[in-house]
């Protein structure tokens, strides 16, 4: 059976034949991940092997990628290294998920079939940070930001201290009445 990374295949067939393959998937082909990236170039490379362990369909997955995300501190692009090794139980319903032993991740398959792309998309998405930022002490941690309407640049720490309090005058108005 020829298995491409985008083609869905029955889990029982993959596990029964202990299918294994190397893959190289463009990040733009990963539906959930591609929405998070700017630009959408690059690829996820790795290896997957399907087997049955302790009565469960399992995928051993290794993925490496260098997606480009936007640092939420300096708003500049940065590479986020992804190097994941996962053991994933492929289950068809929530009852089966409850019976999966500890140490295995759970992936709910649709119509008892799965594609390598679906598994890679999930793992890369889980590896991306919720709020990407350069590490402390790195290139953007000490950068200065230019405030709107100001000519001088202000250190980033100072911008955080300038908090607007729209109701600050309200207490004074209430005391007058």
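Sequence proposed for the structure above (177 residues):
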């Amino acid at each position: 059976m020829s298995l491409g990374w985008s083609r869905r295949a029955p889990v029982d067939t993959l596990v029964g034949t202990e299918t294994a393959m190397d893959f190289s998937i463009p990040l733009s082909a990963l539906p959930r991940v591609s929405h998070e990236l700017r630009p959408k170039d690059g690829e996820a490379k790795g290896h997957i092997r399907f087997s049955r362990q302790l009565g469960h369909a399992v995928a051993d997955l290794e993925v490496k990628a260098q997606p480009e995300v936007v640092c939420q501190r300096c708003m500049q692009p940065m590479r986020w290294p992804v190097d994941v090794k996962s053991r994933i139980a492929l289950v068809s319903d929530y009852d089966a998920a409850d019976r999966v032993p500890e140490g295995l991740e759970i992936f709910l398959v649709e119509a008892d079939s799965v594609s390598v792309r679906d598994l890679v998309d999930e793992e890369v998405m889980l590896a991306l940070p919720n709020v990407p930022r350069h590490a402390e002490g790195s290139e953007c941690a000490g950068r200065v930001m230019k405030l709107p309407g100001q000519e001088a640049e202000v250190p980033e720490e100072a911008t955080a201290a300038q908090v607007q309090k729209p109701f600050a005058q309200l207490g004074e108005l209430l005391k007058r009445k």
